[in-house]
Amino acid sequence: MRRDGAANREKVLQAAEHVFAEQGAAAATDEVARRAGVSIATVFRNFATKQDLIEATAVRYLEKLTAEALRLADSQDPGKAFASLMRTLAAAGPVKMTLMDLLPPHDDDGTGLSRPVTEAADAFRAALDGALRRAQAVGAARPGVTGDDVSLLLRALAHAADLGEEEAFDRAVGIVLDGLGVPR
């Protein structure tokens, strides 16, 4: 792919992330093109269908979250890194949930998702589990907590973040961290 083609693809994905997060299923590809500053033909040259665009946007978003989880995992303090990751993921939750909800119906194990989405979701879960295990290994998270527990709490926090009450959301994240035994 030529450099300008790759740059246009990235602009489309960035715009799609915002448009889908704001408008959900009602989002139009021409709005994505407008915000990306490209023609609708450029959008469809990169993504044959709206569903292809949604999937690519979800994969890109999951990859960004995974990269952040892995970046934080390199921290000298696994407890603080996990707390920071929880805050980041809780704030990112509404966009992630919206994108995942736009995908075809699927089971919790990913059945029904395309291979790239499944692989991105698996990598995200593995990074989250790794960060949790590192925090647990140094006593900075409760030993009995699982990645599934954390995922459920993050989904609940994502709903709270969607309400737009920043102070209440910050308190809720703090309560969850306290309950997980994670130092703040």
TrEMBL record:
InterPro entries given for it? Homeodomain-like_sf, HTH-type_TetR-like_transc_reg, HTH_TetR, Tet_transcr_reg_TetR-rel_C_sf, TetR_SbtR-like_C
Give start and end of each HTH tetR-type domain: 6-65
Which residues lie in coiled coils? none
Q: Name one Pfam family in it.
A: TetR_N
Repeat as a keyword of this entry, yes or no, is: no
- Segments spanning the bilayer are none
What is a GO molecular function of this protein?
Answer: transcription cis-regulatory region binding
Protein name in UniProt:
TetR family transcriptional regulator
